[in-house]
Specification:
166 residues, alpha+beta, elongated, 2 domains, Arc Repressor Mutant, subunit A, 7 helices
Length: 166
């Protein structure tokens, strides 16, 4: 007897609702992923996430809270980023998305860890290079491969999202 499965995604006026036998759901999901509906739904989810981050940043600025270190520490704790490479990835996302910092040399990242009361990563170049090798970070061509301009890839964001699930 095959197990029943269901996938339900609502993103604005786009709804994907698939149910039935696991194999049938898998086949239909593969077909939907190649369709524009899937791309539209993912785009709307990303946009909603970005708007939520922007709203949180603006609310924090308006309220004068939270202080930089406690905000980053809360991110690390709430997302269960225990391993140092994950924390470095989180730091780059925090600096870019929350603080709007595009140039983050080692002293800036170390300072963020220190402000949060966390042990700085130490050999930051090693972490950044390994994260680039894993496809979680890229550097823009104009940055001449300098790690200080690293940007999270969609895979890097997905990796952090997976880590933050309970």
């Amino acid at each position: 007897m095959e197990e029943e499965a269901r996938v339900l995604i609502r993103a604005g006026d786009v709804e994907i609702d698939i149910s039935g036998a696991q194999a049938s759901v898998d086949d239909r999901l593969i077909r939907i992923k190649s369709d524009d509906t899937w791309s539209i739904a993912l785009s709307r989810i990303r946009n909603a996430r970005e708007r939520a981050i922007e709203a949180a940043v603006e609310a924090a600025r308006d309220a004068g809270l939270p202080e930089r270190g406690s905000a980053f520490r809360a991110l690390i704790q709430n997302c269960s980023l225990i391993r140092k490479p994950d924390q470095v990835l989180g730091a780059i996302q925090y600096l870019r998305d929350v603080e709007g910092v595009n140039d983050s040399p080692p002293r800036v990242i170390d300072g963020l860890f220190e402000d949060a009361g966390l042990e700085p990563p130490g050999n930051l170049s090693l972490y950044l290079n390994r994260l680039r090798e894993r496809g979680f970070l890229v550097t823009p061509p104009s940055a001449k491969e300098k790690n200080r301009y690293a940007i999270l890839t969609p895979e890097g964001r997905a990796h952090l999202d997976k880590r933050s699930r309970y």
